[in-house]
């Protein structure tokens, strides 16, 4: 038993005060199916970049359908767990979830009086999504009083009503008003969550006691995988605050990450009720992006391409998926470009399927990611124009000379248009945007190929930018009025761009027909490499943290309004 264990350790204060990885304690109940409570908290803290610790209040026999049984250990044991942690570890943030009983709340209060963590995020868990009670009715007022100790509370709509002693809000404005009153009275910030309201947009709004608001809207995901969303949001928020993020950055990060997690929750196929979110989706996406595996394996393209059939299909990439070749929106004019399209099918499908394209289309792409994408696009177009101009210089056929020169001018015009219509000239530090590693790698590859390889190889390298962009444009659905990116999506639908793509395809078809088998093989590799650069280019915007080097949009506002937003 514990009597033989020392309770006095070197005081935490002798250890380095500010850890770069925030040390975050969750005080919550359990969920053996891993979607809510302590399990969700630990996964969320890890995903948000923290070191997670867990003190268990109640053991809950629950699954995705609901709660079956509860086991509540003695309050002394809760106190012992809390002490064991705080006697040893400096805490950068504490998050509380299910506290269950008045006695447990009192135990945590006594411990907090002593420990006083800098950040306390209180998720006032009362009733689970399944309708099961997780807080004894007689403990509600103790929970309400407990919330006054928080840095920020994260009630859902029903919990907000109990907290503020109001009827359940039926609109976002009502909820905001309830929260504002309570926040002003108590001096505690509130995150108002509209997940439980019937709105197309789910908005998380940070309300400070001084009345200031930070609203982070996101599109509603049509899914039943929302078990544990409240636990996950509050834990991620605590972690980002614990690492020193501003409330705006912390809430933006937590909301965007959770949106991605909810979007991919159903694919986990965990349980047949209200399933969990996929807390690890972002980490796996970033891990895949960090892979150093070669994009084009040596055996992906034969050394000599005598006929288009030698190329085989589809084969590039390391995605390892079986793909059916998507129908090209701009038809290949001959067998060589048809074979190249088939060879790149896996990457084309991955772009269509990408989180970036999905988020751009459904409007959930965070504003900072969109601004970053546009700024990188402008930088890219400048490099791309140089590669196109190099092809003009290297062409001998007069039509080809004219075509590539015009294409280069077109890219520069587009770049200028981006600066004029969309982008500010500098980011928040006053510096002009710098190329990201992905943008630099792509433009360097294009220039090196257009200048240093056979001309056919250069033409193959510049083609995917035309062809895959036209492909994305053709697949775009009509978006509702008020969509934040509708004006940008319209630029994809420019018919002039389809004509330019057809001409580029005709150039490549004739270059391939005239080239030697070895040059054709090099051209096929360049084509597939450029396709992969396109995928990376889209995806890179979703690897950026809020405040992490995004350029500003020309009209510097808060996030753009989303369709259906109640505000
Ligand atoms: N269907 C959904 N689509 C998008 N985001 C959602 C959805 N449901 C929940 N969320 C996100 O999860 C957060 C917490 O969900 P909510 O249902 O409001 O709280 P709780 O789980 O505490 O009842 C919301 O603020 C929102 O960010
Ligand atoms: C231990 C515990 N804590 C919190 C919740 C609430 O989560 P949800 O409302 O999503 O069911 C839960 N089900 N279990």
UniProtKB/TrEMBL annotation:
UniProt-listed Pfam families: Phos_pyr_kin, TENA_THI-4
UniProt pathway: Cofactor biosynthesis; thiamine diphosphate biosynthesis; 4-amino-2-methyl-5-diphosphomethylpyrimidine from 5-amino-1-(5-phospho-D-ribosyl)imidazole: step 3/3
Coiled coil stretches, renumbered: none
Residue ranges of every copy of the Pyridoxamine kinase/Phosphomethylpyrimidine kinase domain listed in the record: 31-278
Alphabetized InterPro entries for the sequence: Haem_Oase-like_multi-hlx (IPR016084), HMP/HMP-P_kinase_dom (IPR004399), PM/HMP-P_kinase-1 (IPR013749), Ribokinase-like (IPR029056), Thiaminase-2/PQQC (IPR004305)
Biological role: Catalyzes the phosphorylation of hydroxymethylpyrimidine phosphate (HMP-P) to HMP-PP, and of HMP to HMP-P.
Name of the protein in question: Bifunctional hydroxymethylpyrimidine kinase/phosphomethylpyrimidine kinase
